[in-house]
Design brief:
By secondary structure, this protein is mostly helical. The chain has four helices and no strands. Helix 1 runs antiparallel to helix 2, helix 1 runs antiparallel to helix 4 and helix 3 packs antiparallel against helix 4. It is elongated, with a radius of gyration of 18 Å.
Length: 128
């Protein structure tokens, strides 16, 4: 009986830890997307803006991958709803499209998509 209670407590702690990691990953993604908007402004006004925006794109993409990893890890211990995994996968697809559009210099789609991603990321953060 004591072993069963300990196993349940351990599983609950794992789920809470995974959920905290997921929240941190979403917050990091939201912050990196916001910083991309700041570096886009610098891109237009300074000589080092392109370097910052390019480096920020890599960090933002990494944050999107971390979000997906955190969603999988949060789902795995409890076997709960897989919806966060779908959300994180969607963000990774949007981040991939953003990178392609940025490299192709298509600001007419790149900028609105960035705004959409920031809004969706804030929404995901608030809902978590």
């Amino acid at each position: 009986m004591a072993t069963q209670v300990t196993a349940t407590a351990t599983a609950t702690a794992d789920v809470q830890r995974g959920s905290s990691f997921l929240r941190v990953a979403i917050a990091l993604q939201t912050l990196t997307i916001f910083l991309q908007a700041v570096s886009a402004g610098l891109l237009l006004t300074s000589s080092y803006g392109e370097t910052l925006h390019s480096a920020g794109a890599r960090v933002m993409y990494g944050a999107s991958m971390l979000y997906l990893l955190a969603a999988v890890l949060a789902w795995k211990p409890g076997g709960g709803c897989a919806r966060p995994i779908w959300h994180a996968s969607g963000f990774l697809v949007l981040a991939s499209v953003q990178v392609v559009l940025g490299i192709a210099h298509v600001p007419s789609v790149h900028l609105p998509l960035g705004v959409l991603m920031f809004g969706l990321s804030v929404l995901a953060l608030v809902r978590r």
